Amino acid sequence: MSGEILLSVEDLTLRFGGVVAVNKVSFEVRRGEVFTLIGPNGAGKTTVFNLISRIYVPSAGAISYLGRPLASVAPHGVAALGIARTFQNIELFEHATVLQNLLIGRHVHHRRSLWGELLFAPGVRAAERQTRRKVEEVIDFLDLQHYRDTLVAGLPYGVRKVVELARALATEPKLLLLDEPSSGLNVEETGDMAFWIQDIKNDLGITVLMVEHDMSLVSKVSDRVLAMNQGEVLALGTPAEVQAHAGVIEAYLGSAEDAGSLRRSRA
């Protein structure tokens, strides 16, 4: 890890009427790491993602990306900054092919005029070749060659998860937000997802901010973990440090005594 701060979240708060969904959450994501948010259902993890994505506007606090406040960025402008995202519930164009979905993901790089498009000018042709080349690189990277011309609607769920990951990578992000990438996957598919995440970090040099429930995946790929509960920060550290934290154990399993009883019953 370079140690450079890519994303900074400071005292982030979001209220829905009298309900505080996120309460004074602060953390920093360093360039070149996998940083994971964990916590029980309703902890506020995906809400933090929605705040970073500008889907929600924070009630208080600040989010900065590469030193630039995100408050002035429109939701449709976030991807152009180098932030891409996947969703827990897959968001793809089902009646388009894998290739077409990835080409749509490249729209943030389009800088062509209307007249240039209409006349298919040399610059437009060169940009189209570049777009196709980048998309094919992503298809090769994620071993999607067999599915490139298949409609998304006809793909197994596990493959769709990889296609959504591919669509995000097609934008060439600096920061990749993964919202529960193992959700709905079997053990083998989760192992493959861990492999992709490690390669995204190590081979592509992309920083990953992830929300995840599968602690085996979290332990395998994460550099640092932030645990949340009821909208607040419980613990921050390595996967082992966070999983051993008494507050995290209680949030997942009940009291520390309950967790001890559970461990003894398994022994």
Helix count, DSSP H or I runs of 4 or more residues: 10
- Overall mean pLDDT stands at 86
- Numbering strands along the chain, what is their spatial order in the largest sheet? 6-7-8-3-9-10
Find the CATH topology of the largest domain. Rossmann fold
- Beta content comes to 15-25%
CATH superfamily of the largest domain: P-loop containing nucleotide triphosphate hydrolases
What CATH architecture of the largest domain do you see? Answer: 3-Layer(aba) Sandwich
Number of domains: 2
> End-to-end distance, in Å?
38 Å
**Gyration radius, to the nearest Å?**
20 Å
For the biggest sheet, the summary is: 6 strands, mixed
Structural class, by secondary structure, is alpha/beta
CATH class group of the largest domain: Alpha Beta
Written as H for each helix and E for each strand, in order along the chain, the element string is: EEEHEEEHHHHEHEHEEHHH
| Dominant shape | globular
Question: Summed up, what is this model?
Answer:
The chain has 267 residues and is α/β, with parallel strands linked by helices.
Task: Give a topology summary.
Elements: E1 5-16, E2 19-30, E3 34-38, H1 45-52, E4 60-65, E5 68-69, E6 83-85, H2 98-105, H3 114-119, H4 122-141, H5 157-169, E7 175-179, H6 187-202, E8 207-211, H7 215-221, E9 224-229, E10 232-237, H8 239-243, H9 246-253, H10 256-266
Parallel strand pairs: 3-8, 3-9, 6-7, 7-8
Antiparallel strand pairs: 1-2, 1-4, 4-5, 9-10
Helix pairs in contact: 2-5
Protein name: ABC transporter ATP-binding protein
Organism: Roseateles violae
GO molecular function: ATP binding
